[in-house]
């Protein structure tokens, strides 16, 4: 569950890194203002690469939400673990009391 949340939170950052890597491999410029022409096998892929790079803006929302989600999952898991240990402990104490 935590892995899915982390992937969700980091997916815009991954898109930006992919866009930068693809642009670098193709020798294209990746600027924030306008899509630059970028040819790959005779096809202009500048606009899709630009769109991928602009996906980074979604990280403004996904990173904090992902952090909140991870904290919530960890808190819930911790509370469940504590409750289970307390149940086991009280069951052991009852068993010891009945044996006495």
Strand order of the largest sheet: 1-2
What percent of residues adopt helix (DSSP H or I)?
over 70%
Given the helix and strand composition, which structural class is it? mainly alpha
* Uncertain stretches: none
Tell me how many strands there are.
Answer: 2
Short summary:
The protein has helices at residues 2-26, 46-54, 59-99, and strands spanning 39-40, 43-44. It has 100 residues and is mainly α.
Can you tell me about this structure?
- This protein is mostly helical.
- It has one domain.
- 75% of the residues lie in helices and 4% in strands.
- The protein has 3 helices and 2 strands, in the order αββαα.
- A two-stranded antiparallel ribbon has the order 1-2.
- Helix 1 runs antiparallel to helix 3.
- The mean pLDDT is 88.
- Keywords: Membrane, Transmembrane, Transmembrane helix.
């Amino acid at each position: 569950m935590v892995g899915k949340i982390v992937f969700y939170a980091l997916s815009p950052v991954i898109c930006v890194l992919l866009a930068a890597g693809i642009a670098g491999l193709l020798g294209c410029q990746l600027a924030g203002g306008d899509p630059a022409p970028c040819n790959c096998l005779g096809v202009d892929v500048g606009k899709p690469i630009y769109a991928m790079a602009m996906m980074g803006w979604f990280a403004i929302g996904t990173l904090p939400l992902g952090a909140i989600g991870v904290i919530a999952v960890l808190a819930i898991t911790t509370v469940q673990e504590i409750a289970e240990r307390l149940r086991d402990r009280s069951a052991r104490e009852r068993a010891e009391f009945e044996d006495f």
